[in-house]
Write a structure and sequence with these properties.
The structure is a single chain. The protein is an alpha/beta fold. Helices cover 41% and strands 16% of the residues. The protein contains nine helices and eight strands. Strands 7-6-5-4-3-2-1-8 form an eight-stranded parallel β-sheet. Bound molecules: pyridoxal-5'-phosphate. Pyridoxal-5'-phosphate (PLP) binds at residues 38, 40, 61, 82-83, 166, 207-208, 223-227.
Length: 233
Amino acid sequence: MMKYELRLQANFRGVLDRIAAACLRSGRSPADVRLVAVTKSGNMPAVQSLVELGARDLGESRPQQLAERAALIQGPVRWHLIGHLQRNKVRLVLPFVECIHSIDSTRLLARVDEVAGELDLQPRVLVEVNVSGEESKGGFSPDEVVSQWPRICAFRNVQIDGLMTMAPLVDDVEKTRPVFRSLRELRDRLASRLQDAPQLRELSMGMSEDFEIAVEEGATMVRVGSLLFEGIG
Ligand SMILES: *Cc1c(COP(=O)(O)O)cnc(C)c1O
């Protein structure tokens, strides 16, 4: 192995170990938490190496970059779109994605549903919630999710699999805990609200700085990028 591959391997194992330890602390099974390796800060050889080390879920925040990389990376990987999706990029990205984490409006969801119907796809999607209410962040407010929930659930070509959030940047990482907890409580509330409501199995929350707290609070997918590619090229 090249030197950068050894470093990548150590980073990857380090993150998996820390997920497992957070699971142990909170009485969860590591099998219930997926690492989505966010590849936007890695170059192509590093991303390909990560797949060879065993990464199976890869995340990109830009639709264009996701589509390009999905066509080039070899291996049994599932691609996750985690960043803002414009409605005019839906058709570009939909054939490549396993899951769109960043559904931030009903208008976008309607477009995804429409294109999915045309392409005969049933994409999995997550509804992005701006729990902390920061202006700079996209997503539904918690109140909007609750009030629009029946409409959100009415689309037929998409599978609403859960919720996603980003915690604010804070000086003390413990301050992210209430944000993650709120997302979990919102999920529990929505899942019991409608008859034949979607199950909302997934909670996509936690990044390099705060993924352990997110796991302790119930994350089923953590989106980690910079920690994986630290020290590489
Ligand atoms: C970049 C990004 C991440 C990963 O962040 P890191 O701090 O590099 O781990 C996670 N989620 C979203 C939405 C992102 O844009």
